[in-house]
Amino acid sequence: MKQFFASVISNKEIAPETHLIWLESAGIATTSKPGQFVMASCGGGTLLRRPLSIHGVDRSRFSLLFRIVGEGTYWLAQRQIGNIVDVFGPLGNGFVIQPLARKILLIAGGIGLTPLVYLAKVAATHGIKATLLIGTSSAAHFPDLPIDGVNIVKATDDGSEGYNGPVTDLIKNHLDRVDQVFACGPLPMYRTMSRMSELKDKSVQVSLEVRMACGLGICYACTIKTRNGLKQVCNNGPVFDLNDVLWDEVAC
What we know:
mainly beta, Elongation Factor Tu (Ef-tu), domain 3, Rossmann fold, six-stranded antiparallel β-barrel, 5 helices
């Protein structure tokens, strides 16, 4: 892990209160893997750093896709080209694609799309086909992003686009001949998935988002219970096996 001062290359609102920001930092871009994250300093004062999943890389640049949910992410959304952001990373363990995998299913709940686009692009370089299920509250909240070479299936809570209902309703219809499943989304989505019999015999990796203070395994603020004992999301995750986590005891 190294600390960097990354320069803003671009910053665009691609959905209501959802921003895609590109930062110049070869140290992060050239060493990151899908599923890893950075800790970003978002403003002065005593604000804690924010853990943000890496959305993509392009040579010496990396991107963050995030939704404004508080003072820190609001500050980050206001950065302009040339501004400097203090970040360190990449941190954590990313997704792992099995050597023989040829077809994968990606499941995104809202802003959980962030690390899955990065994963899909890496998978494509190895000739692996990906289907992406993405669910949002309404059509207006689908990020305006080009996601090439991926079969995209949408779901909305209000029925304004695609399937009318939770994205988890679509999973069982897309498991045929899938070698692995990867997901990123809110806690209720994972709890629903953990109860699905169709996923019990599948390799299912999920990216878990919880409150973090340090991101380095020092404070133990992100500790969760698993079938193999206590784990730290920052060090042992953020990617976990779906069936390893005791979901009813996780508080995000």
